[in-house]
Amino acid sequence: MTTNRTASLQIPAVVLDQLESHGLKVGRVLDDVEVLLRRQVESSHTFVHQVARYLIDAGGKRFRPLLVSLTSHLGDPDADGIAEAGVIVELVHLATLYHDDVIDEATARRGSPSANHRWDNTVATLTGDYLFARASELSADLGVQVTRIMAQTLAALCEGEILEVQGSVGALPDDIPRVEPTLEHYLKVISGKTASLIATSCRYGTLLSGCDDEVVETVTTYGWNTGMAFQLSDDLLDIGSEHEQSGKTPGTDLREGVRTLPVLYALDADHDGELAALLDGERTDADVDRMLQILRGSDAMERARATAQDYIDTAVVMLDDLGDAPVVKALKRLAGYALDRVG
């Protein structure tokens, strides 16, 4: 089985080269992460092994392992467990992708058929569960504190996903309590489903490298703000990009009735207009295309981008007390990567 890897889904090589040139040796850790990822999902059952490696082999940004490695340079980057922590956060991230594609009824992921489309929902769901289990096993080797942090992060991820479903227009059976999809609701959703794991990546890097508590908390907050911006940029890509850019079908959130920030801003400007009427309907492919057209032609996209920039600015300010070492400068630049990929 072959997969279609696109360069746009990777951390740019020039970024890694710049980090290495400033003495931030992250390449070795990322290489170790790739080896350990495949080793950690090995199974004596051939089919389990195949589907567990499906998204690993499809590539990806490895943004979370990069953050683990990079933040470890605030302490001792050669400390034990850095690469393993990178594997843990990437396995959890990959597990959520399997589950997200089932929830979204997605057909593509990273330029290839999604696992649920390639096989079925049951296989994709159980594969995600398998990756969670393998991440938990590895975290146990790093101690109770690492395991507890991951358990808390998994709870936040699940709470965020459930809250998102509760706020999805027209997606719930009558016996499930619906939550009004407001701005406050949306921010709680992305805090759980995305920012929590990116924050944990930063916590692992600083914690395992021996940083003091104040630095750990500061950099974790940096990670949370960066994660918020990262999810906002994904939501912008879901509306503004074509399939060839993102590897996913545009308008996935619209099809699911999920009101992301651009949609909320557009509705705030015209709460009884055509977009609102389309969102309340059955949402055919033609309806989704029309909604994409409306959103792309509105100022809601720029407003959402400005909000993402606010989170990036906050993330950068969090690091001001850590001096101007190369790792601090790199983290500040990396925060802006979230919006760089939107353009």
Give the topology, please.
Blueprint: H1 13-21, H2 27-40, H3 46-52, H4 54-57, H5 63-71, H6 82-104, E1 108-109, E2 112-113, H7 115-118, H8 121-141, H9 144-166, H10 183-208, H11 213-240, H12 243-246, H13 252-255, H14 261-269, H15 274-279, H16 285-296, H17 300-318, H18 326-335, H19 337-340
Antiparallel strand pairs: 1-2
What count of helical segments does DSSP give? 19
Outline the low-pLDDT stretches. Answer: 1-9
Number of strands: 2
Mean pLDDT reading: 85
CATH class: Mainly Alpha
| Integer tally of domains | 1
Give a description of the structure.
By secondary structure, the protein is mainly alpha-helical. The chain has a single domain (22-340), classed as Orthogonal Bundle (Farnesyl Diphosphate Synthase), CATH 1.10.600.10. It contains 19 helices and two strands. A two-stranded antiparallel sheet has the order 1-2. Strand 1 and strand 2 (112-113) form a beta hairpin. It starts with 12 loop residues before the first helix and ends with a helix.
Question: Outline of this structure?
Answer:
The protein is 69% helix and 1% strand. The protein contains 19 helices and two strands.
Considering the chains and any ligands shown, give keywords for the structure:
single chain; 343 residues; mainly alpha; Farnesyl Diphosphate Synthase; two-stranded antiparallel ribbon; 19 helices; 2 strands
